[in-house]
């Protein structure tokens, strides 16, 4: 399954009241604006992920912090690894790798990698499903910044 390049702000468990959350999300993100990002780090989350990480600018950090502040009533459903004090923003290149695949993938990326610039131009809510070990995603709400 192909995923759009993205930086995850939060991960919520399946008990999240989605319809109520969408309305809160719209309100919480109404003043968010586009964020310029510079990716200059190539890294891994061993043993399964190869990614690039953006420089954490004040705009990126404050937008993420504001997201959590505005949606604090949903913290009980959230994965704490994405809370502002723990968050490692990243754009995944490969996921679900074993150690050998991780090493080969990282070496390939290392040989090709050059820092690059981008923009966060949209924010949304995506539902991730796992069927027979395969990830799939469905955007259930998105808005341009």
Helix content: 25-40%
Poorly predicted regions are none
Order of helices and strands: HEEHEHEEE
Which of globular, elongated, flat, extended, rod-shaped describes the shape?
globular
Strand order of the largest sheet: 3-2-1-4
Distance between the termini: 26 Å
Mean pLDDT: 94
How does the major sheet shape up? 4 strands, antiparallel
Instruction: Tell me the structural class.
Output: alpha+beta
- Summed up, the helix count is 3
Cα Rg? 16 Å
Secondary structure: number of strands = 6
DSSP strand (E) fraction?
25-35%
Structure write-up:
It is a single chain. A hairpin with a 3-residue loop joins strand 1 (35-45) and strand 2 (49-54). The protein is of the alpha+beta class and 145 residues long. The protein contains 3 helices and 6 strands. The strands form 2 sheets. The protein has a 4-stranded antiparallel sheet, with helices on one face. Strands 5-6 form a two-stranded antiparallel sheet. The longest helix has 14 residues, at 99-112.
